[in-house]
Amino acid sequence: MDPRVMTTDQWILVDHSLRYLVLFVGLVINTAMSFLLAHAIIPSLVNTGEMPAGMTRLRPVLYPISFVSAILFLWSFSIAITGAISVIQAFYPRYAI
User: Fold this and answer.
1) Dist. CA 12–CA 14, nearest whole Å
2) Which terminus, N or C, of the chain has the lesser number of Cβ atoms within 10 Å?
3) Phi, psi of 84 (to 5 degrees)
4) C-alpha torsion angle, residues 96, 83, 91, 93 (rounded to 10)
5) How many angstroms separate the CA atoms of 95 and 97, rounded?
């Protein structure tokens, strides 16, 4: 199976797919950290007395941030995978011989 030569349009699509993959990684980290802070770290530190009780006011702010980040990372992952699949289909016209 011989791969075809990639055109400039396909390289642009690869560039966009990689950008969305980098965005995906950043959003996954943001989702995990904001949810972890809101659901585990802040309550634990408040219960042990190492953090003032007023810091629990951050929890209602962090949950929507986590939710929006989760929606955005799903969106960016779907865009990246869609672009990657279209490049692979153009580069390798058949998946199997």
Assistant:
1) 5
2) C
3) -65, -40
4) 40
5) 7
Helices (H), the chain: 8-36, 42-48, 59-91
pLDDT the model gives residue 83: 92
Rg over CA atoms, the chain: 21
Q: Give me 26's structure tokens.
A: 């950043």
Sign (positive/negative) of CA torsion 52, 58, 63, 69?
negative
Tokens, residue 47: 């219960």
Q: What six digits make up the tokens of 77?
A: 């992952």
In angstroms, the CA 49 to CA 51 distance is 5
* 82 neighbors 19 (Cβ within 8 angstroms): no
**Looking at the chain, how many residues does it have?**
97
